[in-house]
Write a structure and sequence with these properties.
alpha/beta; Spore Coat Polysaccharide Biosynthesis Protein SpsA, Chain A
């Protein structure tokens, strides 16, 4: 079963079904936006698409946990989760459908070499704070493709120049926290990415709930699942997206982009420090492992 988790942007919801099969997809509406909710329910009804409305508190974790709850209730063996801002490529739909039809498949497929769409404009920080941005029609926006999460050189990133060059007011303590954050991710991620997303999953993933973090709930859940993989409780692989299955649209994405750009980068520092503490706790519990995640091509 394909699941689309949507909280805003009717244009993005409609875009999903340029590739997704309507009869094999459930739309989960988790939103505080009553206008969007009305639009989305109407669209799903008109197009005979299964739709579930879940209670929202405005956080990403609550929305994603409502997906896990629906996946559990549906009783299907596997699920593919697509964030409402993003979309699957035609190849992605075929690949994940084939996986769902097989018997011997991984319990968790995450993404490596992830592809994102960003705006061509330079002043993206100011744009990220525009309250109209999450609901814009993507067809009217400029675009370019990038790989924003890929890490070419962990040691270079850990020097902290990314912060000092772009945030003149950043403190030494902030830079030191950033260095620790990068070094822990270098140690524990198992792929050369700052973050990743779980897309395809079996029911073994259900106990691994999303932690209520402002940003980073995907990364933290991934690290918990990687721990389970390293302990032999489930099988995880990373799909090399050089032939992409999943496209992130950062032009209209919600809280992560908004928070990272808040107060000239202070929002990023805030959520990074919170996530750092959670990852450090994993390390203290011996649940952060310096192992690589097997790469695969679908």
């Amino acid at each position: 079963m394909f699941y689309v988790l949507s909280s805003h942007n009717i244009y993005a919801l409609q875009r999903q079904f340029k590739t997704l099969p309507k009869n094999k997809t459930t739309v989960i509406l988790n939103t505080l936006d009553e206008t969007f909710l009305e639009q989305a329910e109407s669209y799903c009804k008109e197009n005979d698409i299964r739709c579930c409305v879940t209670q929202s508190d405005g956080t990403a974790a609550t929305g994603k946990n409502s997906f896990l709850d629906q996946f559990d209730r549906d009783g299907v063996s596997h699920a593919v989760l697509i964030d409402g801002d993003d979309f699957l490529t035609p190849r992605g739909v075929k690949c994940y459908q084939r996986l769902m039809e097989k018997e011997d498949v991984p319990d968790a497929v995450v993404l490596f070499n992830q592809i994102s769409i960003t705006s061509v404009e330079q002043d993206t920080t100011a744009k990220s704070q525009d309250p109209s941005r999450p609901n814009e029609d993507m067809s009217k926006l400029t675009s370019k493709y990038t790989q924003g999460a890929v890490v070419i050189d962990w040691d270079l990133l850990a020097k902290g120049d990314l912060l000092t060059d772009n945030m003149p007011e950043v403190s030494e303590d902030d830079v030191e926290d950033f260095r620790r954050y990068v070094n822990l991710l270098k140690y524990g991620m198992g792929i050369d990415e700052l973050s990743t997303r779980l897309v395809f999953m079996s029911r073994k993933v259900l106990p691994y709930r999303f932690k209520n973090l402002v940003v980073g709930e995907d990364t933290f859940q991934y690290l918990e699942l990687k721990d389970a993989h390293d302990r032999g409780e489930l099988e995880m692989v990373a799909h090399d997206e050089k032939n992409p299955t999943y496209i992130y649209d950062l032009r209209i994405s919600g809280i992560a982009v908004k928070e990272s750009g808040r107060d000239r980068g202070k929002g990023f520092i805030s959520w990074m420090k919170t996530l750092l503490k959670e990852i450090e706790n994993l390390q203290v519990q011996n649940r952060l492992h310096n192992t690589r995640v097997p790469l695969t091509e679908l």
